[in-house]
């Protein structure tokens, strides 16, 4: 399960999206910092070691979107970080 939580910071000028992947520990518990995973065609990098929870059967893996999967576009309104499929990640 991929959770995408967003937070608006800097007085509403910046939206930050955190990605958290919940997976079975026996299948994905060996992921380490910098590993690349693909979810629904989008590439992410593992940000920190997987964190087991409850009985340890599942773990949460913090992710960041792979920078190779995003484009920086400068517009008249500022900087926008957009995924290759057109989703806005950051607008300044």
How would you describe what is shown here?
Helices cover 4% and strands 60% of the residues. By secondary structure, it is mainly beta. It has one domain. The strands form two sheets. Strands 1, 2, 3, 4, 5 and 6 form a six-stranded antiparallel β-sheet that branches. A three-stranded antiparallel β-sheet has the order 7-8-9, with no helix packed on it. The longest helix is centred in the first third of the chain and has 4 residues. The relative contact order is 0.20. About 8% of the residues have low confidence.
Distance between the termini: 29 Å
Instruction: Work out the helix count.
Output: 1
What is the global morphology?
globular
Estimate the helix proportion, in percent.
under 10%
Number of domains: 1
What integer is the average pLDDT?
Answer: 77
At a glance:
With 92 residues, the protein is mainly β. It has one helix and nine strands. Strands 1, 2, 3, 4, 5 and 6 form a six-stranded antiparallel β-sheet that branches. A three-stranded antiparallel β-sheet has the order 7-8-9, with no helix packed on it.
């Amino acid at each position: 399960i991929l959770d995408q939580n967003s937070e608006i910071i800097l007085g509403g000028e910046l939206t930050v999206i955190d990605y958290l992947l919940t997976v079975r520990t026996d299948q994905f518990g060996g992921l380490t910092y910098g590993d690349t995973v693909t979810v629904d065609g989008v590439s992410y990098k593992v940000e920190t070691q997987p964190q087991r929870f409850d009985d340890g059967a599942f773990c949460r893996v913090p992710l960041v979107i792979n920078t190779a999967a995003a484009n920086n576009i400068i517009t008249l309104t500022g900087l926008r970080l957009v995924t290759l499929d057109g989703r806005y990640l950051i607008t300044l």
